[in-house]
Write a structure and sequence with these properties.
Layout: E1 7-11, H1 15-21, H2 26-47, E2 51-58, H3 66-79, H4 82-87, E3 91-95, H5 103-115, E4 123-130, H6 132-148, H7 159-165, E5 176-179, E6 198-201, H8 211-222, H9 232-236
Parallel strand pairs: 1-2, 1-5, 2-4, 3-4, 5-6
Bound molecules: 3-methylbut-3-enyl trihydrogen diphosphate (IPE) (2 copies) and magnesium ion.
One 3-methylbut-3-enyl trihydrogen diphosphate binds next to strand 2.
């Protein structure tokens, strides 16, 4: 493999259908999804990926049946094991509207974020109660406040200002986005950040997504020519 993407974002979809196909409860699919998270996190860390951003729970997922929301919240609480981060030297960062998350979950993940901040390897970003439109609305509110306070003028606002006010301001844009589970949509994930991201969709349900599938996606990424609006001739010129 020639190029390892510095930032991989994943929409981990298909847990429910994975469970249904086996006659199991949807929550079993989420539990099996955690096993895939462990395998893919370790694989990314070993491959030298710098940022792995996992869509774990969207703003819209709050509209699911209360029992599924509760099962997901308790799974988040029990599955983020410290060893996964410490053994792989991985730092945890959380993005999303944590004010909506139960206090016990919030305290636990913020504590883990704090304790793993000493690690120097890959950063694993959990998008929890996250949506791009929530994030952008938030950024616009904060920029407007700075303008109202006279810290910024409207003419000062540029693309960098917006990037800096997003919750992802500590990392580069994703190079590769993977969506498992067969749907071909972004479901309100990293809309600003994915302007030039390579988008990879596969049928595999998230609990069945293994290291070999990740490698396949990275190989596909290696065959993309990232032109950023230029011509092929321009970008291949040394
Ligand atoms: C993704 O799997 C996990 C979350 C959205 C939390 P789904 O639960 O969406 O699984 P499907 O799409 O119903 O199969
Ligand atoms: C996107 O999956 C959110 C996560 C994977 C956390 P969904 O299953 O919620 O997306 P839609 O509703 O099919 O677009
Ligand atoms: Mg889904």
């Amino acid at each position: 493999m020639q190029k390892i993407p510095a930032h991989i974002a994943i929409i981990m979809d298909g847990n429910g259908r994975w469970a249904k196909a086996r006659g199991l409860d949807r929550s079993m699919g989420h539990q099996q999804g955690v096993v895939a998270v462990r395998e893919i996190t370790t694989a990314c860390s070993n491959l030298g990926v710098k940022f792995l951003t996992l869509y774990t729970f969207s703003t819209e997922n709050w509209n699911r049946p209360a029992n599924e929301v509760a099962a997901l919240m308790s799974l988040i609480l029990t599955s983020l094991e410290e060893e996964l981060f410490m053994n792989n030297n991985v730092r945890l960062r959380i993005i999303g509207d944590l004010s909506r998350v139960p206090e016990v979950v919030r305290e636990s993940i913020l504590g883990l974020q704090q304790r793993t901040s000493v690690n120097t390897g890959m950063t694993m970003v959990i998008a929890l109660s996250y949506s791009s439109r929530w994030e952008m609305t938030n950024a616009v509110q904060r920029i407007a406040t700075e303008v109202a306070e006279g810290k910024l003028t409207p003419a000062d606002i540029n693309e960098q200002t917006i990037t800096d006010h997003l919750s992802t301001n500590f990392m580069p844009d994703p190079d590769l986005l993977i969506r498992t589970g067969g749907e071909v949509r972004l479901s309100n994930y990293l809309l600003w950040q994915c302007a030039y991201t390579e988008l990879y969709f596969c049928q595999t349900f998230w609990p069945d997504f293994h290291k070999a599938d990740l490698v396949k996606a990275i190989e596909w990424f290696n065959h993309r020519e990232r032109r950023y609006g230029k011509t092929s001739e321009q970008v291949t010129k040394a």
